[in-house]
Amino acid sequence: MNIDAEALADGIWKINLAGRMDVKGTQEIDVKFAGLTAGQRNAIVVDMSGVDFLASIGIRALLLNGKAVSQRGGKMVLLNPDANVAKVLEMAGIDMLLPIFNDLDAARQAVTA
Amino acid sequence: MAAGPQYQLTLANDLAELRRMSAWLAQACGEMGVSPERAADLDVCANEAVTNIISYAYDAPGNREIVLRLVRAGAGAGLTIEDDGRAFDPLAAPPPAAPASLAQAAIGGLGIKLMRRMMADCAYRRSGGKNFFTLTTYP
């Protein structure tokens, strides 16, 4: 998998994930993902549009990082998962914990509200 | 109903084999005319089931074989996963309760939850010292 981050206005960070978020893919980005959600970054939008497969190990990574952000008073949301990935998030009940947006402006508002 | 073709793949008990499994599933489902949506459901659940087997079914390290057999099941597909590990039902652990908040979210049990919710049927049996776990997609 690939992962990178870009700073948007208003202190928002967008983390871009791409590739198969299976055992191998998640292990490839796990440490960097945790690093990018650590520290003072309290408004995080995770762009899922490049992720074409999601297994439970990937959901765990999303949850763990979302939990870390939430515990220090920040917000993390997911942006633009494809249909199959959105279905897995919904089946796992994760859409209730990590809100999903299909529009960047709405996602930005959600993490800065 | 006439039996259609059966596709078979043998994996080593190594998580690095999951990508080869997914590529095989995608090709075989495509050749059988299974819809991309159902093929994607099956790919997720096969990843979960085989990951559980490789991670938990073997008492001792060593090279073991996991045999996958894929058939058409109505409008969907049925995948039987055979392994010679100890008796192990991939669905045996109870499903996690729905977490009320991110802070309370239990990390784990998600794979079982996904298999139960994404498949029309999941069936386990022990026979001849082997485990047989069958995932059947929705039509």
Could you tell me the number of beta strands of chain B? 5
Question: Which regions of chain A contain 5 or more consecutive residues with pLDDT less than 50?
Answer: none
Mind describing the biggest β-sheet of chain B?
5 strands, antiparallel
Coarse structural class of chain B:
alpha+beta
Total DSSP E strands of chain A: 5
- Note the total helix count of chain B: 3
Overall mean pLDDT score of chain B? 88
Structural overview:
The complex is a heterodimer of chains A (113) and B (139). With 113 residues, chain A is an alpha/beta fold. In chain A, 42% of the residues lie in helices and 30% in strands. A 5-stranded mixed sheet of chain A has the order 1-2-3-4-5. In chain A, strand 1 and strand 2 form a beta hairpin. Chain A is globular. Chain A starts with a strand and ends with a helix. By secondary structure, chain B is an alpha+beta fold. Chain B has a 5-stranded antiparallel sheet, covered by helices on one side. The two termini of chain B are 15 Å apart. Chain B has a single domain, classed as Histidine kinase-like ATPase, C-terminal domain (Heat Shock Protein 90), CATH 3.30.565. Chain B has 3 helices and 5 strands. Chains A and B meet through helix 2 and helix 3 of A and helix 1, helix 2 and helix 3 of B.
Concise description?
Chain A has 113 residues and is of the alpha/beta class. Helix content of chain A is 42%, strand content 30%.
Describe the secondary-structure layout.
The complex is a heterodimer of chains A (113) and B (139).
Chain A (H helix, E strand, L loop, with lengths): L1 E6 L5 E9 L1 H14 L6 E12 L1 H16 L3 E5 L3 H9 L8 E2 L2 H9 L1
Parallel strand pairs in A: 2-3, 3-4, 4-5
Antiparallel strand pairs in A: 1-2
Chain B lengths: L6 E6 L5 H15 L3 H21 L8 E9 L2 E8 L26 H9 L2 E7 L2 E7 L3
Antiparallel strand pairs in B: 1-2, 2-3, 3-5, 4-5
List keywords for this structure.
heterodimer, A: 113 residues, alpha/beta, Transcription Regulator spoIIAA, 5-stranded mixed beta sheet, 5 strands, 30% strand, B: 139 residues, alpha+beta, Heat Shock Protein 90, 5-stranded antiparallel beta sheet, 3 helices
